[in-house]
Write a structure and sequence with these properties.
single chain; 123 residues; alpha+beta; Nuclear Transport Factor 2, Chain: A; four-stranded antiparallel sheet; globular; binds zinc ion
Length: 123
């Protein structure tokens, strides 16, 4: 059975964000960003902490189980230096009867064989 990845890539979960959640390094910042959206969707706080740069990682990360992430659109993926990149995206959510959208430009840094999330600017 085809199980599409929640990040909307059109690939299977196992062949997309599932690989990263199991420990494979992200090949680029967009791949890491998608896997983090997918981890928010699945409530995987451990993966979110692991893929966060040490200096900006929250000491305690609690996800709101009532907030459901309902879709992701990646607008752009830009290389900004030899080991840095920027991804702009919109994620939609639902909480009870309320819905909303979050548009953010996130900064990423290459670290070891993969990438980590540094910070983001909501716009
Ligand atoms: Zn995915």
């Amino acid at each position: 059975m085809f199980q599409p990845c929640e990040c909307g890539s059109g690939k299977t979960y196992a062949g997309c964000c599932g690989r990263l959640h199991l420990g494979a390094p992200a090949r680029d910042a967009e791949e890491l960003m998608r896997s983090r959206y997918c981890a928010f969707h699945r409530g995987d706080a451990a993966y979110l902490r692991k893929s966060w740069a040490a200096e900006t990682r929250p000491a305690d990360l609690t996800l709101d189980p009532a907030q459901a992430w309902t879709g992701l659109t990646v607008h752009s993926h830009e290389t900004t230096g030899p080991a840095t990149a920027r991804v702009r995206f919109t994620a939609t959510w639902r909480k009870g009867a309320r819905t909303g959208r979050l548009t953010e430009t996130s900064r990423f840094r290459r670290e070891g064989p993969g990438w980590v999330y540094v910070d983001g600017e909501v716009s």
